[in-house]
Design goal:
Layout (H helix, E strand, L loop, with lengths): L18 E6 L5 E7 L2 H6 L10 H9 L2 E6 L3 H15 L8 E2 L5 E4 L8 E4 L8 E3 L5 H11 L10 H10 L4 H4 L13 H15 L4 H16 L3 H19 L11 E8 L3 E10 L2 E11 L6 H13 L10 E3 L8 H11 L4 E3 L4 H42 L8 E10 L2 E11 L2 E2 L5 E5 L7 H21 L10 E2 L8 E5 L19 E5 L2 H13 L6 E6 L4 E3 L14 H29 L12 H11 L2 H5 L3 H5 L6 H13 L45
Subcellular location: Cytoplasm
InterPro entries: GIY-YIG_endonuc, GIY-YIG_endonuc_sf, GIY-YIG_UvrC_Cho, Hlx-hairpin-Hlx_DNA-bd_motif, RuvA_2-like, UVR_dom, UVR_dom_sf, UvrABC_protein_C
Protein name: UvrABC system protein C
């Protein structure tokens, strides 16, 4: 615990202007981000008598070891920068809303030549129209099934679309009238896009005009005695009305609004959001957060608005945003919403009428969500705390190991030797900090030596980051220490940047290192730490045979009861490391098996390999091509063509298939997709979709 006075800046050093500030801990990790209209006044509140601070604020300032700030021009800029840094650094003391589930959206890919209607989850993409979120994916499919009768927009995947275009036959939906079949040219791209636009207009809530137009067309068809056409229009109208009935009218004036309600106690808060478009509830979502900082309802609302509208591809801001409490001050938030929408936005608390009644419904949903979350989490929190305490007691640690790292070695008969590092914080997986290693310090199988190499490389990086003597980058996702005697590649989930406040680095040490194995692996890990002069990190191993816990320097293992929550936690950590390692090892092995003759051509990258395979269709046809024909591929010059021809000439061609009954050579009916004599599919020129972060 740090003394805040040890890093408190002098009052004259802090500017009396708007800005954003960051508190960092002793490892230079950002633990809190805040904004202020006056940095001087706001920061002074943290450096007062600790007894006067809220318990969570007191914990934050005593955990921090330094504070820094950035001056901006306006409060709106401060709001934007605060949100950006919270997303970037993931500080532990900030309010961070987490979805209680992954919500599906109805998406229309208007960025494609032939827009497609589909269910989408996750991050939003530019050029795609989203409607929702919905509570269940089946609700989207039911709605789409009704609307396809009237708006027969494409719903098939790219593979199905290309196959139909190649064969000239549409899929089943094209035959039953629920797809206009643009794949076979039944509709022009322009008409299909217009159809998709009408679909989006209807989903956006502008239904009245379209229904009246259909009703008019139905009456005209009946007057002209085109009864079959009139019947089809009648059925279309009924289908649209049935789809509309799935979303009840909640506001009679066809309002576009988002309603945000908060239910909270001293420890946690639940947020519920209703998306109302055209007076109907078009979507609902919920978030839950730990109140790790002292925060008011207005501040919770402000964080919810940032989460909801902060992303560049985030949800469209409606005309009205109704909330239970206004942020303080409200003007910067209101201005920020107006900028996001490009027009005025009304941010207010509903006082009476239908909107007040609907807000009460949203609040009841928030209260139920918080109660359900607490019911689910109560035993989980208790179990995790007890597990960490049992581990600390069994290993004689000074405190519970809040951060645990586990390492495992994986190989297949000594080939493709790799290692994994998984991280658990507070008993939960921290997947963003998982790491994968290739063992290249030596050849062959030696789990003990491999463990020593991995631990050495990981904590040498920790010491380098701690001392801030320099950072190395070799490729976008690869770290390599040029001064290290060992060779190898640490593969990281994301590129390393210069700012040391990011959590995706080796700079944050664990309290406990767990290795998959017994006494030899534990001794190797401890020896690696001792050689680096690290004596404040505990080490243990978990042997699979009897689930015994081994500690360095002890001849006998620590035996935890089979019903121990601590043993169960160590098993989960060990099993996750094993899963992560074996997945990586299998990926490397599969990639090696799928290699082809084009891999041996020096200077030939993935893009040009792909272009060659696409141009000729197979390696067999490429092998029989002349140098002039190879030069016809974009990006291939004379010298490169000669190199390709020479490399393929050295590879033995595949033997022809022979009919054993007649002795005749069987001619290929399909394009040859084999490379060389191995008979393996040619994928050397194609991107490896399962490559992950391997470099």
């Amino acid at each position: 615990m740090a003394d805040p006075s040890s890093y408190r800046p002098r009052p004259g050093e802090i500017p009396d202007t708007p800005g954003v500030y960051r508190f960092r801990d002793e490892h230079r990790r950002v633990i809190y981000v805040g904004k202020a209209k006056s940095l001087r006044q706001r920061l002074a509140n943290y450096f007062q008598d600790l007894a006067n601070l809220h318990p969570r604020t007191r914990t934050m300032v005593t955990t921090a070891a330094s504070v820094e700030w950035t001056v901006v021009s306006t409060e709106v800029e401060a709001l934007q920068l605060e949100y950006s840094w919270i997303k970037e650094y993931d500080p532990r003391f900030n309010v961070k809303y987490r979805d209680d589930k992954s919500y599906p959206y109805l998406a229309v890919t208007m960025n494609e030549e032939f827009p497609r209607v589909q269910v989408m989850r996750g991050h939003k993409k530019k050029g795609v129209r989203y409607f929702g979120p919905y509570g269940h994916a089946w609700a989207i499919r039911d709605t789409v099934d009704l609307l396809l009768r009237v708006f027969p927009v494409r719903t098939c995947s790219a593979g199905v679309f290309k196959n139909a275009a190649r064969t000239g036959r549409p899929c089943l939906l094209g035959y039953i009238g629920k797809c206009s079949a643009p794949c076979v040219g039944r509709i022009t791209p322009e008409d299909h896009r217009e159809l998709a636009e009408e679909f989006c207009e209807f989903m956006a809530g502008r239904t009245g005009t379209y229904l009246r137009r259909l009703e008019k067309q139905m009456m005209e068809a009946a007057e002209e005695m085109e009864y079959e056409r009139a019947a089809r229009l009648r059925d279309d109208i009924e289908a649209l009305k049935k789809a509309m009935e799935k979303n009840a009218v909640v506001l009679a004036d066809a309002t576009d609004a988002d309603l945000i309600a908060v239910a909270e106690d001293e420890l946690e808060a639940a947020v519920q959001i209703f998306h109302v478009r055209g007076g109907r509830v078009r979507g609902q979502r919920g978030w839950v957060t730990d109140k790790v900082e002292e925060v008011t309802t207005g501040a919770l609302v402000e964080h919810a608005l940032q989460q909801l509208y902060g992303e560049e591809t985030g949800d469209a801001v409606p005309k009205e945003v109704l909330v239970p409490a206004l942020p303080e001050p409200v003007e910067p938030v209101q201005e920020w919403l107006t900028v996001r929408r490009g027009a005025n936005v009304s941010l207010r608390i509903p006082q009476r009428g239908d909107k007040k009644a609907l807000m009460e419904t949203v609040e009841r949903n928030a209260q139920q969500a918080l109660a359900l979350h607490k019911t689910k989490r109560a035993s989980d929190l208790t179990t995790r705390s007890r597990a960490l305490e049992e581990v600390a007691e069994a290993l004689d640690l000074d405190s519970a190991p809040l951060r645990i790292e586990c390492y495992d070695i994986s190989h297949l008969q000594g080939d493709d030797v790799v290692a994994s590092m998984v991280v658990f914080e507070d008993g939960l997986q921290r997947k963003s900090e998982y790491r994968r290693f290739q063992i290249k310090g030596f050849a062959g199988q030696d789990d003990v030596r491999s463990m020593h190499e991995v631990i050495t490389r990981r904590f040498r990086r920790y010491l380098a980051e701690k001392e801030r003597t320099g950072e190395w980058a070799d490729g976008e996702n690869t770290l390599t220490d040029p001064d290290a005697p060992l060779t190898g590649t640490e593969v990281i989930n994301g590129s390393l940047k210069d700012d040391d406040g990011r959590p995706r680095k080796f700079a944050y040490p664990p309290q406990l290192v767990v290795v998959d194995g017994g006494q030899p692996q534990v001794a190797a890990a401890r020896r690696a730490l001792d050689e680096l002069g690290i004596d404040d990190i505990a080490v243990c191993g978990l042997a699979k045979r009897l689930e015994e816990v081994w500690v360095p320097g002890e001849d006998d293992p620590v035996v935890l009861p089979r019903t121990s929550e601590g043993l169960y936690l160590l098993q989960r950590v060990r099993d996750e490391a094993h899963r992560f390692a074996i997945t990586y090892q299998r990926t490397k092995r599969a990639k090696r098996f799928r290699s082809g003759p084009l891999d041996d051509v020096p200077g030939l990258g993935e893009t040009r390999k792909q272009a060659l395979i696409k141009h000729f269709g197979s390696v067999k046809k490429l092998r029989s091509a002349t140098i002039e024909q190879i030069q016809e591929v974009p990006g291939i010059g004379r010298k490169t063509a000669e190199t390709i021809a020479a490399a393929l000439a050295q590879a033995a061609p595949a033997a022809p298939a022979v009919n054993t009954a007649t002795g005749e050579i069987i001619e290929d009916e399909e394009p040859d997709t084999t490379g060389g004599s191995s008979g393996e599919p040619v994928t050397a020129g194609l991107p490896d979709e399962r490559r992950g972060q391997e470099t």
